[in-house]
Amino acid sequence: MKILVLHRVPYPKIEYHRGIDHDVHDVTYFGRRPALDTLPEGLRREEVERPGLRDPYDEAVQWLDGDPRTFDRIISMSEYELLDAARLRERLGVPGAPVARVLLARDKVLMKRAVDRAGLRVPRFLPLTDFLRADGRAPWSGATVLKPHRGASSEDVVVYGDPREAYASVTGRTSGVSELDGTEVTDEAVASYEVEEFVDGPVLHFDGLVQDGRVLALTGSEYLGTCLGYAQGVPLGSFQIRLTDAAREWVARALDAVEIREGSFHLEAIRDSGGELVFLEVGNRVGGADVAATFELRTGVHLPSWELRVLLGERVAGLLPERGSARWYGWFVHPGHHLAPGVFAGFDGAEEFSADPRSVTWQEAAHGTALPDHITYGAHETPLAGIAGTGSPEETREWMARLFASLRIRTHAHEGAQV
Question: For the chain, which domains are there?
Fold first, then answer.
């Protein structure tokens, strides 16, 4: 089989060799040089470097126009390039999810409409274009969230006290979102945002693997902190929780509504004060941070490699590992982007936790490492990332909460100057 991989996620996060036999298949990795440089030595493959000046789809078309070839599968494991892969599949007649289906699991307005039609609760929302046309009137009166349709990592997400405040901010060009605050805001920019009611409650994420529309593996987790808080410089984590039959059924209905039938999924929901699950968003990909690692520790299933087998058309039902752990795991990550430009100089309050046997992994940046200039959950980029494992969800949550309360990051802008 000839396989084209749009390669963006660093190789160690996916470990393609665990899902694709590179000695049997001809695998071409198409990506920018930093991503290609993460490919391990000794792996049989072809590398094609793209400039990174345009979308992956456009650069792939240009490459293939000059060097025509065929593929049996075109794969992306990055949320940011799923649509590019779908467009290439349609252009070249390669099997796989079409653009319309991929878009349904990428566009937050489209997915909420689909989930609402399926009878599951979603936050009330309006495309920003409709909201502005209605002079800021909305079918809710409380806290209001401004967010991009296809964003990730809570970038360009703003929370307001009510719809009136959101309207005044957007029309006054004071939202803090660059493409909405400029002197010449385009209709295209406005059309790429939405507003929705803020639903209070813990945010959960459900992760797993699906084939032919059937959920084959599933875990549930609850965030400690929020993705928006992380974007603003606050540590973030999540801990695995017990799953009810009702939650399993809810996940299956949500996935069916957005037509996620093959591969991994990362589904987020809010549990309101009455215990009802409210759909937030979903991705047809492996969750970020250490979601894949904690999933494997708990279930024995390495999501990326089993997803690759699904995407290659292999039957995996009945083949997944059946071993499970009695421990409950959680991942945690400490941001550094909010302190850039700066240099990491260590943590105060970390010693007790790094030496604790409940700390399964502890990946702390070397002193003197430059802090990232962008939001990232990657262990190779953040000041600290790790995994905790304990005897119960409650204990894992408590351990991470104490860790977050104890940590104090040290940085300096240049040698000897404290920030």
Answer: 2-96 (3.40.50.20), 124-197 (3.30.1490), 203-418 (3.30.470.20)
